[in-house]
Amino acid sequence: MKYYALLHGVCGLAEGYSDTTVRWFNDLDKAMEAKQTTLARLMDSEHEEIVSSTDGMQDIVIIDDDNSEHEIVKIIELKPTWPENNSIAEYFVWDQMNCEAPFDGDYMPTDLSVIKDLCERQEAVADTFDVEAFHEFVRDLWYGNTAMFDADDICIYYFKMPKVHLPSQPVEFK
Question: Has this prediction a pTM greater than 0.85?
Fold first, then answer.
């Protein structure tokens, strides 16, 4: 079974980056419809340009290019490894700094793999480890559906994928 994550957020670390959201769909047509609705709402506001991918899966709304104010609306196809097993949580990963899904939906880490992935990312960019930020991340991971780690040169989201058959209405985690 495939899921579709509709991601909406700002590009990079512009103001509002912590408001990145994901809505989950099990039907590409419904995800595309929701993306178009979100895009139409963004187009109602003042903007300079819209850059769209040729496949229609991503739109970047350039609000103010001089100040790097860009918003992204993107659909990512996900292929969960454990779709029917409710005891294994899988996470969709979003790299906020680079505005990309590092695994392109082909791999979703599980609970412990999320911590390993984050530690490897942190080790690659910093000599020190921000224990307070890591503690907050683990707490969010344990108690919530989304965990974000924001420290020196790294800002990464881990969105917990729903494990039930998705309803016709999208599920939104923030």
Answer: yes
